[in-house]
Design a protein that fits this description.
Blueprint lengths: L5 H14 L2 H8 L7 H12 L3 H14 L1 H6 L2 H12 L1 H9 L4 H13 L6 H10 L3 H14 L5 H5 L7 H14 L2 H10 L4 H14 L2 H9 L6 H14 L1 H10 L5 H14 L5 H9 L5 H11 L20 H13 L3 H11 L4 H12 L3 H7 L6 H10 L3 H13 L3 H9 L10 E5 L3 H13 L3 E5 L2 H10 L4 E4 L8 H9 L9 E5 L4 H10 L3 E4 L4 H12 L6
Parallel strand pairs: 1-2, 1-3, 3-4, 4-5
Helix pairs in contact: 1-2, 1-3, 2-4, 4-6, 4-8, 6-7, 7-8, 7-9, 8-10, 9-10, 10-12, 12-13, 12-14, 13-14, 14-15, 14-16, 15-16, 16-18, 17-18, 18-20, 19-20, 20-21, 21-23, 23-25, 26-27, 29-30
Length: 548
């Protein structure tokens, strides 16, 4: 290969610029990577002084075809931008002209970054004939950045491309356009590809116009657990803007949707949701899962007035609901509630004892300390803690009583020697609700089982890899990792006959049930569960009789 005479190269480039010979100038610049850095700098300087319409395609060509030079001289791109800003029509004309694909890609990037609306027709035309994925990606990105609504349909075509990069680029561009039609097109792709759904949900969450929030809201009624989980997470992150539409869901005749909406309202923690949740409880929904979710949500909202209405939940016939109501009362405790709770627990009947048990097992410290202010209730509280409560709860209250000055009662609990009985089976329970985990702890203790509780599925999976329990109880709808995902992970290490997994869920969708069984669950149990139901399920799948 003959060595290039650098002075001749510069001389030829200056002449080509002078006589506006674009073809020869392009040929000269095709050798720019073969000359010294000093000569490259001089050549680019000459190019920067050329007229805009002559220099722009040549600068774009160097950036596209000589990446080493472009990297060595970052000001090259700045020069191109400066000339385009001075003469934007040149880019628009070049995009419609028969230039190299690589140059079109660079020009598309420039058009996008400077939001060049006059370039839109040329960019749309390129999409009809371009075959190079990298150029198509640059064009789609540019259309998204420019933000012209007329580009929606052209971009939407690439949501169904066979190239994942183009699909992701199209989704991102539609989210940048952020029009109702763009939202509709993104929503139309939801549920067609599980791997893509997470990205689409993220894009919809970025838009935050009413139509996008409505689309996210619709995922709460989806039959796919991963869509529901992703939708719940994003609605929670959006926050206050989601509250209005979520509270409307509470009026719908769809128990699962109502429960998911309550969960998200609790995550958001906006007091604007209180009237709607209170009205829901006032109407006494028949589904105990709704009542449970409503009280759990009320416990997470800043109730400043009307907290006394929570006391009705302590008389609910379902244990789990009583526990949720107790926790909500404890977090909003005041003198009015204290008097109401004492009235409900003064008698020695079964209902009063059940209320007392719910309060203690939910670790409602404010309520328990209030009850101890009444001499007649002390024996009942201490007896339950001493004889029936889970050892961790007994230990917890020994500390609470000591810190609050009830040293004698704390001493009685500390001296209490638990009856040590060998646990029949070891159960791992996984649920993102700490309230449900507290209920599991008590139920499994009463059944004579050793339990380990996990709020985070990922932690449970790692523990199961190291230590195999006798049974796993898992929720279905959990953030990041659903119960179905957890089951698939566990089944990579243990077969169904080696480690039974029971899905315990409020959801009653045939699609979810099929997916759960396909993933490898042994059985499905509906919430709210009772001690007897858990005991029966454990016996069915382990063959070991519990204390139930």
């Amino acid at each position: 290969m003959n060595k290039i005479n650098e002075q001749d190269l510069l001389k030829e480039l200056r002449f080509d610029i002078k006589v506006r010979d674009l073809l020869k100038a392009k040929l000269v610049l095709s050798h720019i990577e073969k000359v010294s850095e000093r000569t490259q700098k001089l050549a680019l300087f000459e190019l920067s002084r050329a007229e805009d319409d002559f220099a722009i395609p040549l600068l774009a060509g160097v950036i596209a075809n000589s990446p080493k030079v472009s990297e060595s001289f970052p000001q090259l791109r700045k020069t191109l931008f400066s000339k385009v800003l001075d003469n934007p029509q040149v880019v628009s004309d070049l995009l419609a002209a028969p230039v190299e694909s690589s140059i079109r890609g660079v020009l598309a990037e420039v058009a996008g970054e400077i939001r060049l609306k006059i370039a839109v027709p040329g960019l749309l035309d390129i999409l009809t004939r371009e075959k190079t994925p990298e150029v198509i990606k640059s064009v789609i990105n540019a259309l998204g950045m420019i933000g012209d609504p007329s580009a929606v349909e052209a971009i939407n075509e690439y949501l169904y491309a066979g190239d994942n990069v183009l699909i992701e680029t199209a989704a991102s561009a539609l989210s940048e356009l952020a029009t109702p039609l763009a939202v509709k097109r993104l929503a139309g792709r939801l549920g067609t590809n599980a791997d893509l759904d997470g990205l689409l949900i993220d894009m919809l969450a970025k838009i935050q116009i009413p139509e996008a929030i409505e689309t996210l809201n619709e995922t709460l009624a989806s039959q796919s657990a991963h869509l529901r989980t992703a939708g719940k997470q994003k609605l929670g992150e959006i926050g206050t803007m989601s509250v209005r539409i979520l509270t409307k869901n509470l009026l719908r005749d769809n128990p699962d949707l109502v429960i998911h909406s309550l969960n998200v309202l609790g995550d958001i923690g906006d007091g604007a949701a209180i009237p709607a949740v209170r009205k829901l409880l006032f109407n006494e929904p028949k589904d105990p899962n709704i009542r449970f979710a409503a009280y759990e949500t009320m416990g997470r909202l800043p109730i400043d007035k009307g907290a006394y209405t929570l006391a009705a939940g302590l008389e609910d016939p379902v244990d789990n609901v009583r526990s949720a109501a107790a926790k909500a009362i404890d977090r909003n405790f005041n003198s009015v509630l204290a008097a109401g709770v004492r009235n409900l627990t003064r008698s020695a009947d079964t209902d009063a004892l059940a209320i007392m048990a719910a309060i203690i097992n939910a670790q409602c410290d404010n309520i328990v300390l209030s009850l101890l202010d009444e001499e007649a209730l002390i024996p009942t509280v201490v007896e339950y803690l001493s004889q029936k409560a889970h050892p961790s709860i007994r230990s917890h209250y020994a500390g609470v009583l000591s810190d609050s000055g009830h040293n004698d009662l704390a001493g009685r609990l500390s001296r209490r020697k638990a009856i040590v009985e060998k646990a029949t089976i070891k159960v791992f329970a996984v649920d993102d609700s700490t309230m449900i985990l507290n209920i599991y702890r008590t139920v499994l203790h009463n059944l004579g089982c050793e339990s380990e509780l996990f709020e985070f599925p990922a932690v449970a999976i790692e523990k199961i890899k190291k230590e195999k329990p006798d049974v796993v109880l898992t929720d279905l709808n959990m953030p990041d990792i659903t119960g179905i995902d957890l089951t698939r992970s566990v089944r990579q290490h243990y077969m169904k006959d080696e480690l039974p997994i029971i899905m315990v869920t409020t959801q009653d969708e045939a699609k979810d049930n099929r997916a759960a069984r396909d993933a490898g669950v042994n059985g499905i149990l509906q919430k709210p569960f009772t001690e007897g139901q858990i005991g029966k399920a454990l016996k069915q799948f382990t063959g070991i009789k519990t204390c139930s």
